[in-house]
Amino acid sequence: MTQELRGMRVGILATDGVERVELDQPRGALQGAGAKTEIVSLHPGEIQARQFDLNAAGTFPVDRLVADTSVEDYHALLLPGGTMNPDQPRMDRDAMQFVKDFMASGKPVASICHGPWTLAEADAVRGRRLTSWPSIRTDLRNAGAEVVADQEVVVDGQLVTSRSPADLPASCAAVVEQFARAHHPMPS
């Protein structure tokens, strides 16, 4: 097991309705590479996970409230999907400010499936190249993004996006690689 992310703190912005596999697998990859992860959410207690958006898939304990968190608390941000999960932060002022601040900071951000919806609401996709679940691609284009449909993972500067749970192996590898580059910048 490698430790290229040792000492890195990663915030995972997730709410009720998060697609379980889209939180579990990237978090496992990050922790396997040595990162410490925290679930940041809108309410205390636990969030309800889903499988295929329809089936209950257990819960995750919330580590911190987004209202009590700032970009300075983390080295990177993960935005998992699920249809319901990204919709809730879009309606929360603190969550939107957190995402805007993260994108403005230049720190790495990764998002999968429906997760980029949150980025669109934060006006953080304009001029960016990314991918997502097919049903939100029009929303992303309307928000000014260049949407790529035929790649598992798209990296645009600080932003790493992927299309769906089927892309998780490639996505997790790219997220660890990109977060490691930001954590330990390569010499020129």
From TrEMBL:
Residues 8-178 form the DJ-1/PfpI domain. Belongs to the peptidase C56 family. This is Peptidase C56 PfpI.
